[in-house]
From TrEMBL, chain A:
Residues 33-184 form the Cytochrome c assembly protein domain. Keywords: Cell inner membrane, Cell membrane, Cytochrome c-type biogenesis, Membrane, Transmembrane, Transmembrane helix, Transport. It is found in: Cell inner membrane; Membrane. It comes from Neiella litorisoli. Coiled coil: none annotated. GO terms for cellular component: plasma membrane. This is Heme exporter protein C. The lineage of its organism: Bacteria, Pseudomonadati, Pseudomonadota, Gammaproteobacteria, Alteromonadales. Required for the export of heme to the periplasm for the biogenesis of c-type cytochromes. It is a multi-pass membrane protein. One of its GO terms (molecular function) is heme transmembrane transporter activity.
Automatic annotation (TrEMBL), chain B:
GO terms for cellular component: plasma membrane. Its main location: membrane. Belongs to the CcmD/CycX/HelD family. The keyword Cell membrane applies. GO terms for biological process: cytochrome c biosynthetic process; cytochrome complex assembly; heme transport. InterPro entries: Haem_export_protD_CcmD (IPR007078), Heme_exporter_D (IPR052075). This is Heme exporter protein D. It is found in: Cell inner membrane. Keywords: Cell inner membrane, Cell membrane, Cytochrome c-type biogenesis, Membrane, Transmembrane, Transmembrane helix, Transport. It comes from Neiella litorisoli. Required for the export of heme to the periplasm for the biogenesis of c-type cytochromes. The chain crosses the membrane at residues 17-35.
Length: 246, 68
């Protein structure tokens, strides 16, 4: 059933395929984020209650959502690497981790900066904020474990186990605003319900969510390609690729 | 356009500091991430080329030894 996938277990094929994806993810993500951000900053009406500080939403929500999606992706890659011993899956785990950590940091930072004018405080130890902070530590833990071993395979195993165990945090973040009484507001955009936002404000948000997802993919692919080149630098295909300039 | 002037756009209705701090740090982090990807790629490619050049040198020096 998955036979069509097998050729991509070859590093050369994976490198070339990820190059094609990188082109589209990178450019679409870049254009989307530029359009969405400028639209959100300059062309949406101000919020009736929060005024213009609400515009931080166009950075805060996309980075927060993608920090969680990125973690899910990383945990799935860790599972594949552990169960089927697929070494490209292990490489994907460490390719995603730093990108996800940056996204999580941005979600926390923009949230804190938004909290000051809106709640009157940068930080509260509330369920949503604390669980997102734990997500940052999980990402950092995965990176630290990976590099803590002299042997990269042992490091990848340890990091993969942490990534899989830590995935329990993702639903906790998601439902934290439902399960606990939180200062943080509930979900603005959900799949099944009508969004709690006017369409004039919603469009740039949706564009930015997709664009930040694409950018997460693009950064991950760049890091994966670097890792492939580093690990297989002595192979003939790398020479061909570098001479062919792609 | 939601603002009357560019000055009003920068001011963000007295929330300018918070909005621009968020977007500044966001843009800076993403550029840093991108730069780091490009920088490591350059370093890795340079390393591979150097290794290849050294291998080539050793190969030629061995053949000259044999000729001598």
């Amino acid at each position: 059933m998955f036979k069509w996938l097998h050729p991509y277990a070859k590093s050369e094929n994976l490198y070339r395929l990820s190059g094609k994806f990188l082109f589209w993810f990178g450019w679409l993500g870049f254009i989307g984020a530029t359009v969405g951000t400028i639209w959100g900053l300059a062309f949406t009406p101000a919020d009736y209650q929060q005024g213009d500080s609400f515009r931080i939403i166009y950075l805060h929500v996309p980075t927060a959502m993608m920090s969680m999606s990125g973690y899910l992706g990383m945990a799935i890659a860790a599972f594949i690497g552990t169960v089927w011993q697929q070494r490209h899956a292990d490489m994907t785990v460490i390719a995603i981790a730093p990108v996800g950590a940056v996204y999580t940091f941005l979600a926390l930072f923009t949230g804190a900066v938004w909290g000051k004018p809106t709640w009157g405080t940068y930080w509260v130890w509330d369920a949503r904020l604390t669980s997102e902070l734990i997500l940052l530590f999980l990402y950092l833990g995965v990176i630290a474990l990976y590099y803590a071993y002299e042997d990269r395979r042992s490091g990848a195993r340890a990091a993969a186990i942490l990534a899989m165990v830590g995935v329990i945090n993702v639903p906790i973040i998601h439902y934290s605003v439902v399960w606990w009484n939180s200062l943080h507001q509930g979900a603005t955009v959900t799949v099944f319900e009508k969004p709690k936002m006017d369409t004039s404000m919603l469009w740039p948000l949706l564009i930015n969510i997709v664009a930040f997802g694409l950018l997460l993919g693009a950064f991950t692919l760049m890091r994966l390609r670097n890792d492939l080149l580093m690990k297989e630098g002595h192979r003939p295909w790398v020479k061909q690729v570098l001479e062919g300039k792609s | 356009m939601a603002f009357d002037s560019f000055a009003a756009f920068l001011q963000m209705g007295k929330h300018g500091f918070y909005v621009w701090l968020s977007y500044g740090v966001g843009l800076g982090s993403l550029i840093l991430l991108w730069w780091h990807c490009c920088y490591s790629r350059r370093k890795i490619v340079a390393g591979i080329k150097e290794f290849e050049a050294r291998r080539q040198r050793r190969k030629t020096s061995k053949t000259t030894e044999r000729v001598l």
